[in-house]
Amino acid sequence: MKTSKKKESTNSGSRDDNPGANREEESELCPGFKDVDAFVKYGLGSVLSATKASAGLPQAGDEYDFYRSFPGFQEFCESQGDELLHCMSQIMQHHGCRSHIRDRNKLTGLEERFDLVVDSNDVILERAGILLDEADGVNRTQNPVMPAGFQPPKIVVSSWNRKGSSSGSRSETFRLLHAKNVARPQLKFKEKVDNSNTPFVPKIFIKPNALKPLPVVSPSPTFSEPEDLDVPAALADFIHQQRTQEHVEDMFAHPYQYELDHLTIPERLLSKPEPQMYRPMAETKLSIIDSLEELVALNGKLCQLAEFAVDLEHHSYRSFLGITCLMQISTREEDFIIDTLELRGEMHILNEAFTDPTIVKVFHGADSDIEWLQRDFGLYVVNLFDTHQASRALNLARHSLDHLLKNFCNVNSDKRYQLADWRIRPLPEEMIEYARADTHYLLYIYDCMRAQLLESNHGQPGLLQCVWNKSKDVSLKKYVKPIFTEESYLELQRKQKRSFNTQQLTTFRLLYAWRDKLARQEDESTGYVLPTHMMIKISEELPKEPQGIIACCNPVPPLLRQQVNELHLLVQQGREMPLLKVRRDLTAARLELPLTAPASRLPLFGPHDTSRGSESGHPQLVADGNFLLEVFFLSKELETPAGQRSLSVARTKARSIIESFENPFRMYLPSTGAHVNKNAKFDPSSKIFEVIRAPLAEQQQKEMEVGETTPKPSKKLMKSAEKSQKTEPPPEETFKPFDYAQSDLKVFDGSKAKDSTQFDPNRQAQDFRKKVKVSLFLNFQIYSMLNILFNTYRGFRHNWPKR
Description:
Blueprint: H1 2-17, H2 19-27, H3 36-55, H4 62-68, H5 71-94, H6 109-135, E1 162-163, E2 172-173, H7 233-252, H8 257-261, E3 285-289, H9 292-302, E4 307-315, E5 323-330, E6 334-339, H10 351-354, E7 360-363, H11 367-377, E8 384-386, H12 387-393, H13 401-409, H14 429-440, H15 442-456, H16 462-475, H17 488-496, H18 502-522, H19 526-529, H20 532-541, H21 546-551, H22 558-562, H23 564-575, H24 626-638, H25 649-659, E9 675-676, H26 678-682, E10 689-690, H27 696-709, H28 715-726, H29 761-798
Parallel strand pairs: 3-6, 4-7, 7-8
Antiparallel strand pairs: 1-2, 4-5, 5-6, 9-10
Helix pairs in contact: 12-15, 13-15, 18-20, 18-23, 24-25
């Protein structure tokens, strides 16, 4: 104590003795520098000297490798490098940046160091810019100066941003949390995201709670039997493929397929439980897990429980495959929120608890959660209970989680942040509360639904066992990566129900391939690169200029604006294709009809339908009904011989429908290409005309059948026809003048004279009345015949076979 007091007294004495030195130290900006100009001058000199010294170092290549071979140079480089890394880490710590720059145990250490330096430079330069602006008198935080007549835009209140209240008070709006400038979390991942066009391989290397070990596949062929040493190389490769084929199939199979197939539900889970009431959220402890030590401790707690609830928060807009951003786990006593972006490479530790068959994992709608766990963390679930499957088994009004919360817990869930950007760090308090509520009440709902399943089935466990089996099927799902093929665009076109010509279809195919390739390279979703409706718009319009492509998009995607010239070349390549009409797939039973079609190919057309024909002589068809269009192409295809291809059931029905049509204008068809029955030649009143396309043998056979059914003409008509055929034409006679002496001149005797060709007004009125009567009679006969034909045609139409 005395010595310390003496030291304090001596120090105080020395301070009192040198008051001038203290004033000088207080007036200095930094130790050794009086003002900013002196500091800047010294700093610039140091930077220049360092730059000159670095220029004198050996250049990368043979020169550097030569100097590197000397031990002294190597030790000097390592020591100086450690000092530089230490200085850089101190500067990063001073500015609040990540400073793990001296860690050399990572395989990608150089890339991570470069990323850290770039991020730190951005932070430091941004801060320097802000300070310089403040020194110049510019304050970025103050409100901008607005014109006098300017009115700020009003907040639009709609159903998506209105929060309703059950107390009857006025509804209130809320702000939509979004991440405008969030650092991409993919850049911080230790294991880079695999967006390649290859199948997904499970990310599991250690299999806890295993009944069957993981398959071991050797990278190179090994021969375990001594006789294999004398086998030729080609045959040895075949033998090795046969031996390892089973292991390769196991490598892509579900790792816990065997364990889930042999999982048995204990009796305690099939009996009626006593629902354990949940604790209020204000009285429940909440733990944020963002370090490896905390994750290991959490795994130890979960392994000692009988059940726990799990939920995930996912982001898919700024990633090709998607990112799991958050995991919520709730027990009966405590809630946990795991930052999966920070612990992405260590999440596989939880497999010990997630695959334990004695622990129940409660999910709601786990179809997507199971795939996300496999894709991002290599996590698998054994002994799963899905409350969504239980809700379907109970036939509830709705199967959503908010309905279950309202029905069982009388809690109004807040779904404002369901579509929020969960990459935001640090998470706002309201988003943490929203994520926590998804699993806090889930265990109580699990107890209530088990009890209701037993009560609805009169105490028998059959319905509850069915829910367990369906939940097991959900846990058996495997994640499948989106694979790009040359025909992938056809599936999207079918879903959009669009019809393209050859130019539009080619452009659509090229844009689809470009979008998929760029999205995989940039790790962005296809909707962010180029939304589907914009891609269809560009394919339909086929712009001639890059400005036209931008005009088709509102708002314009950032990557499209950067690559607009490349897109313009793709559109030009599509425009160079010959313009043809593309028919859709025949299996969809929706066929494209060209604008004009020959009337002879369409059996529903008669000669009176060509009144509005085109100049080419073919009728102009209007695509009003799908049935007429399909009958046209089906009739066109069904004309092919039956021996060439077998018709399906749909084609057979179409053939029967087409054959059932009766043309009402059959009598008025032209005689060209038609076969006229022999009996009709001798008895025209029978009006027997037949249009036959069959060969000559079939024509003769049909004539025999028709001849038996039709009445035979009289013998007189037959004989007169034969005589007319047998008589030879008379020979040509020479011209002779008329001999009036041989004429019968009885005209003047008062007998009836022949009709004169001169005009007689008295006789003209009588002849006109006779012609009118005859024409009226003929029109009546024609009308009656047409009426009979149309009634017959209507009867045929009612007797069409049902489709």
